[in-house]
């Protein structure tokens, strides 16, 4: 029986879809966008795996902060039998309101990830990689969250010459914002002093407008999910350039 099993294993198994790297993402229970955007950006041989965290769909500061106690539990459900090379809490505003270090500590606690990060961390790394110190900010959030996000980057030493917010508080609405409207709002946020435009929120369908928007503005465009995938790949040791996702993916 042992010999037969060895023969069968050799014949029927391969390395699987994650033979280069396995990436895990903890997304909101109400996220309608990330499960399409993230796998589309993953190179061949990189597996993308998800867990969801409880969330009402009301994107308010109070609700975002309340997720802190549930992050570790959601993280523990991402391939607990094998683990992943990198694990990300895939919510920009949630990372901000809970706090990057608290999020990463919670992600690391189950012990099923080699590296842990947040979208907010990924965006900061993306700005550094593009050598951007001044950027315009676009968000779908309520004003208090937009102001807090702007303040976060200013505390890190970045300059934000212009900000545009949509004033939305529901994930159902954020996921339905037309990509063309996102692009137009980003263009209106552009400023002569801005070296790039950052479109925040993993729920917005921003990834699909990056390439055309960069050509329109003549400068880099960073979107939350794009930055997260780029940084997660680098954490996992995968440094592929990917066409169609902006100047950031030209950076090894």
Tally of strands: 8
Element string (H = helix, E = strand): HEHEHHEHHEHEHEHHEHEH
Fraction in beta strands: 15-25%
**Nearest-integer average pLDDT:** 95
Kindly state the percentage of residues in helix.
40-55%
- The gross shape turns out to be globular
Q: Return the CATH architecture of the largest domain.
A: 3-Layer(aba) Sandwich
> Which secondary-structure class do the elements indicate?
alpha/beta
Strand arrangement within the widest β-sheet reads 2-1-3-4
Distance between the termini: 48 Å
CATH class of the largest domain: Alpha Beta
How many domain regions? Answer: 2
Quaternary organisation? single chain
Number of helices: 12
Radius of gyration: 19 Å
Q: Give the biggest beta sheet.
A: 4 strands, parallel
CATH level-3 fold name of the largest domain: Rossmann fold
Poorly predicted regions are none
How does this model look, in words?
- The chain is of the alpha/beta class and 252 residues long.
- It has two domains: 11-118 and 227-241, Rossmann fold (3-Layer(aba) Sandwich); 123-226, Rossmann fold (3-Layer(aba) Sandwich).
- The chain contains twelve helices and eight strands.
- The longest helix is centred in the middle third of the chain and has 13 residues, at 143-155.
- The radius of gyration is 19 Å and the shape is globular.
- The mean pLDDT is 95.
């Amino acid at each position: 029986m042992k010999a037969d099993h060895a023969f069968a294993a050799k014949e029927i198994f391969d390395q699987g879809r994650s033979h280069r790297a396995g990436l895990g993402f903890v997304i909101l229970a109400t996220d309608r966008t990330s499960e399409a955007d993230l796998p589309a950006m993953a190179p061949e041989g990189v597996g993308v795996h998800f867990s969801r965290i409880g969330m009402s769909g009301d994107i308010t500061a109070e609700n975002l902060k309340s997720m802190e106690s549930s992050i570790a539990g959601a993280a523990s459900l991402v391939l607990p039998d094998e683990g992943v090379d990198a694990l990300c809490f895939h919510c920009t505003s949630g990372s901000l309101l809970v706090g990057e270090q608290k999020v990463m500590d919670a992600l690391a606690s189950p012990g099923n990830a080699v590296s842990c990060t947040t979208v907010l961390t990924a965006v900061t790394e993306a700005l550094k990689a593009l050598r951007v110190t001044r950027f315009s900010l676009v968000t779908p959030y309520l004003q208090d969250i937009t102001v807090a996000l702007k303040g976060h980057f200013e505390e890190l030493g970045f300059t934000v010459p212009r900000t545009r917010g949509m004033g939305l508080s529901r994930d159902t609405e954020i996921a339905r914002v037309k990509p063309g409207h996102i692009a137009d709002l980003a263009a209106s946020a552009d400023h002569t002093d801005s070296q790039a435009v950052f479109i925040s929120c993993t729920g917005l369908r921003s990834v699909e407008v990056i390439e055309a928007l960069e050509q329109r503005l003549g400068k880099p465009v960073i979107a939350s999910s794009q930055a997260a995938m780029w940084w997660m790949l680098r954490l996992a040791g995968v440094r592929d350039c990917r066409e169609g996702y902006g100047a950031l993916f030209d950076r090894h």
